[in-house]
Design the sequence.
């Protein structure tokens, strides 16, 4: 029997879950989520400052680089609660950028950049291109050394989250024919390099990034020998944290729908008494509990060779299955109201579509799992 | 609860491991039942009764029940280790399921001193086989409507009526019986009483029921002026519904206190994976068929879901929103999974899916088809999957009653 992972839950995870549960609930009521959709930056800078003060940006950054020295397992409960309350901001992007530096950065880059990220400087990754491929190694953008040692970049990246809020951007490119990562400051971008994209999840901010004409500093290249390993790590870390945000969202949309089923009356009865609605919402609930069990197993086993990848892919696959079903049914079960923009069900459904589209959906991860398990 | 000494626990676990390695008989020369509900032949019954007795005598069953009632008086962790060792070595099931998992914990929680002294040891040793009398021919899922009558007559009750799906009815010495002591209550539930009824007495008769698998295993039980001593009830007269509901919580794993071991073994994803390697599609292992691969991996994710959800019940901070959610959902998750994975296994066997138990060409002696058909006993028994969804919807999510 192959080891598929197991559950574990640390004191630190429990503390962070506790704090994040009340913080996200307080700071991100649905009225505010709606208000921030209309805001250009998409998030509340005061709340971001509080998140920085709580030390959440440094949770998975080693102590000697200014962080708390914990791991992604401890980021998971925070991300889950953010997803539950749709708390917006560049937390996911910045955490992943730090992971990219940890997995692939030079010692100098880690020494200089990680303390900044732990202290609230924001960052993001630019990995996606026009090829519509979830394989992060499929890259057309390039970096070439100029005579004075700087890196001349070309190409267009897509779906770069939180790019206008980021102080640092790390982009994947081909360098000397091989995948590589390059870090640079957003301030160095030419005018018009960023274009805000229209994306399905309106609570998030995403941009296309034209690299043409950009010169990154000579020391911007991450360790070329570790670039492929770093991309693999980023892929799994991104999926783990996405699964967390999705689980939180699944819980919220089920709670929201159950409330409606308990209050809406048709034909003289609360509609939640009808089994045509009750039974599928129970199936959605069980799917959520299964997804959450996978999530915390993946968090616990993330750093284990082999098992970490299996558990993480299972977690993302199950999270996608659970949130897609729950949000789809949430729209349906709200009836006519469900078809309106005012019903929150659409916010969660859009969130689910976003996450399915990023770093692989359930079908993609199941296909990878067949290769790993069979 | 006594403290657990890790050294003692480790020594106990090692001894249990060695004992089960030494004593498990995997193939007695006839087909063993997969669950306690399928004991259809005397040969199977005697083998399994002896097995349970042997494990009990060795100290690996009821290890956490109190010493004064025949248990081992140890912390639960010891029994958990013994159960793990039994599973690791593929030990046969325990057949006295109603006693070990329902009656025993119930009596420990709510029984009188006299009842505990009288019944608990016989449950563990398998000397006294127990059965359950809840469902009736006309009242399955609607348990609260039970019509079997028990009328007080001096120092005993006179019972008349019929119970159905009595697992081990032919062998049982006692039955936990839900019977109507009053027919005139405003709420149907208030007229029910929970009895510990003797089976080997005049006026109790059992008739075998042939199941969809073609085997026997259940009986219908008829009561005609059967006597139950008046003090053989749990709780009070008219309070039977609450006791019955509590009993179902033990069954569904929502409440602890069970004696240990397991009462059913199922097909797991690994066995099916092995089957997929042995069966053929187009001259190659069926496992190389992309459609089969896709399904197989989904079953492996699902079996892992169920395993992780079981583990998660032990992590309180991860269960704050719906503390009973995982426990009340587990029957639905496990039983429906078992039904579907066996159905998939039949498909893997290709044309041989047409064979059944008894034909020499049947793959694995017909195990997969028999398992599929038997899987319905769990998706229907103990509250159908449809009733389970009502329970989870109403008791976990707080939805209005249907």
Sequence:
């Amino acid at each position: 029997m192959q080891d598929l992972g197991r559950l574990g839950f640390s004191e630190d995870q429990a503390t962070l879950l506790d704090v994040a549960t009340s913080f996200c609930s307080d700071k991100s009521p649905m009225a505010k989520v709606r208000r921030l959709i209309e805001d250009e930056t998409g998030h509340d800078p005061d709340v971001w400052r509080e998140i920085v003060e709580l030390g959440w940006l440094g949770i998975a950054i080693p102590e000697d680089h200014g962080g708390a020295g914990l791991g992604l397992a401890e980021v998971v409960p925070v991300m889950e609660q953010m997803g539950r309350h749709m708390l917006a901001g560049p937390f996911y992007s910045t955490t992943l950028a730090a992971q990219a530096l940890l997995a692939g950065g030079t010692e100098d880059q880690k020494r200089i950049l990680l303390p900044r990220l732990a202290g609230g400087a924001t960052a993001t990754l630019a990995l996606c291109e026009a090829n519509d491929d979830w394989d992060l190694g499929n890259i057309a953008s390039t970096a070439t050394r100029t005579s004075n040692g700087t890196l001349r970049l070309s190409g267009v990246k897509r779906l770069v989250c939180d790019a206008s809020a980021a102080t640092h951007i790390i982009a994947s490119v081909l360098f000397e024919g091989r995948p590589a990562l390059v870090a640079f400051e957003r301030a160095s971008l030419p005018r018009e390099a960023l274009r805000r994209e229209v994306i399905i999840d309106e609570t998030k901010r995403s941009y296309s990034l034209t690299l043409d004409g950009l010169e990154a500093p000579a020391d911007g290249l991450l360790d070329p020998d570790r670039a492929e390993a770093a991309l693999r790590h980023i892929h799994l870390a991104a999926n783990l944290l996405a699964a967390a945000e999705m689980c939180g969202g699944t819980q919220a949309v089920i709670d929201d729908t159950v409330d409606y089923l308990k209050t809406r009356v048709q034909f003289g009865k609360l509609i939640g008494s009808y089994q045509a609605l009750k039974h599928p919402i129970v199936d959605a609930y069980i799917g959520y509990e299964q997804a959450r069990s996978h999530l915390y197993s993946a968090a616990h086993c993330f750093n284990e060779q082999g098992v970490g990848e299996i558990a993480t892919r299972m977690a993302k696959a199950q999270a996608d299955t659970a949130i897609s079903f729950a949000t789809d049914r949430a729209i349906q079960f709200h009836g006519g109201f469900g078809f309106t923009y005012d019903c929150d069900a659409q916010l969660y459904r859009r969130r689910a579509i976003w996450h399915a589209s990023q770093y692989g959906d359930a079908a993609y991860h199941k296909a990878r799992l067949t290769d790993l398990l069979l | 609860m006594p403290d657990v000494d890790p050294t003692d626990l480790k020594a106990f676990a090692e001894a249990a491991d060695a004992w089960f390695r030494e004593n498990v008989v995997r193939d007695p020369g006839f087909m063993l039942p997969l669950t306690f509900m399928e004991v259809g032949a005397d040969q199977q019954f005697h083998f399994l009764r002896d097995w349970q007795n042997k494990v009990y005598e060795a100290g690996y069953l009821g290890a956490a029940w109190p010493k004064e009632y025949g248990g081992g008086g140890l912390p639960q962790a010891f029994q958990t280790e013994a159960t793990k060792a039994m599973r690791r070595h593929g030990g046969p099931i325990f057949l006295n399921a109603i006693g070990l998992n329902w009656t025993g914990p119930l009596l420990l929680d709510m029984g009188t001193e006299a009842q505990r002294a009288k019944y608990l040891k016989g449950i563990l040793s398998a000397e006294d086989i127990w059965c359950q009398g809840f469902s009736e021919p006309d009242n399955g899922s609607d348990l609260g409507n039970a019509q079997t009558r028990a009328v007080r007559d001096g120092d005993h009750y006179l019972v008349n009526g019929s119970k159905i799906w009595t697992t081990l009815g032919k062998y049982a010495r006692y039955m936990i019986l839900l019977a109507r002591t009053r027919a005139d209550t405003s709420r149907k539930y208030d007229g029910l009483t929970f009895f510990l009824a003797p089976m080997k007495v005049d006026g109790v008769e059992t008739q075998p029921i042939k199941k969809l698998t073609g085997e026997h295993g259940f009986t219908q039980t008829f009561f005609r002026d059967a006597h139950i001593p008046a003090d053989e009830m749990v709780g009070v007269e008219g309070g039977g519904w609450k006791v019955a509901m509590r009993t179902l919580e033990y069954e569904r794993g929502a409440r602890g206190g069970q004696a240990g071991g397991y009462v059913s073994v199922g097909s797991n994803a690994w066995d099916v994976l092995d089957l997929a390697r042995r069966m053929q599609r187009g001259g190659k292992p069926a496992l190389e068929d992309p459609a089969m691969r896709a399904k197989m991996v989904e079953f492996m994710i699902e079996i892992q879901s169920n395993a992780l959800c079981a583990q998660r019940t032990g992590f309180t901070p991860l269960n704050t929103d719906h503390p009973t959610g995982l426990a009340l959902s587990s029957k639905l998750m496990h039983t429906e999974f078992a039904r579907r994975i066996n159905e998939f296994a039949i498909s893997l066997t290709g044309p041989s899916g047409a064979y059944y138990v008894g034909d020499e060409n049947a793959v694995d002696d017909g195990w997969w088809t028999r398992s599929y058909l038997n899987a319905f006993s769990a998706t229907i028994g103990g509250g159908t999957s449809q009733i389970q969804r009502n329970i989870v919807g109403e008791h976990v999510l707080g939805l209005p009653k249907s």
